[in-house]
Amino acid sequence: MYRLKTRPQFQATLAAGAAARTAHFALHRLRLDAGAPDPLFAGAPDASWLGALIPKRWARRSVTRNAIRRQIYAVAQPAVLAPSAAHVVRLRAAFDRSRFPSASSVALKRAVRAELEQLFARALRSADTA
Fold first, then answer.
1. Residue 54 CB: number of other CB atoms within 10 A?
2. For the chain, how many structural domains are there in total?
3. pLDDT in single tens digits along all 130 residues of the chain
4. For the chain, what is the HEC assignment?
5. Are the C-beta atoms of 29 and 87 separated by less than 8 Å?
């Protein structure tokens, strides 16, 4: 699994549209064609790529953003991601600060992990039907 690093990689993947959504996250997937490799993903066209997009608008504290980002990369193992595709997990809503007052609490990490597992399960179901 490779990580998305450049702005054009993120923009191309986000433009492909959302493959799955939950209350707080959206998963965008861009299928990579092995016959005509995309120059943005020239390193490994048959591999899966992953990026995390955590805006300050929805997670004000850097501790929270980094904890969510670590959870995304931990949950998204290569077996969960579609091969020959680029994926971006985007935080699209804030977690309730009254329920999770600590910026990096165990409860917040559990809630994030559970929702990410649900997101990837939905993405796998949509990939199987497509």
1. 19
2. 1
3. 899 999 999 999 999 999 999 999 999 999 887 655 677 887 666 788 999 999 999 999 999 999 999 999 999 987 778 888 899 999 999 999 889 888 889 999 999 999 999 999 998 887 666 5
4. CEECCCHHHHHHHHHCCEEEECCCEEEEEEECCCCCCCHHHCCCCCCEEEEEECCCCCCCCHHHHHHHHHHHHHHCCCCCCCCCEEEEEEECCCCCCCCCCCCCCHHHHHHHHHHHHHHHHHHHHHHHHC
5. yes
Per-residue tokens: 26: 């959206």
Domain interval for residue 52:
2-129
What's 20's domain CATH number?
3.30.230.10
Question: 34: which 2 tokens?
Answer: 């092995």
Q: What is the pTM of this model?
A: 0.89
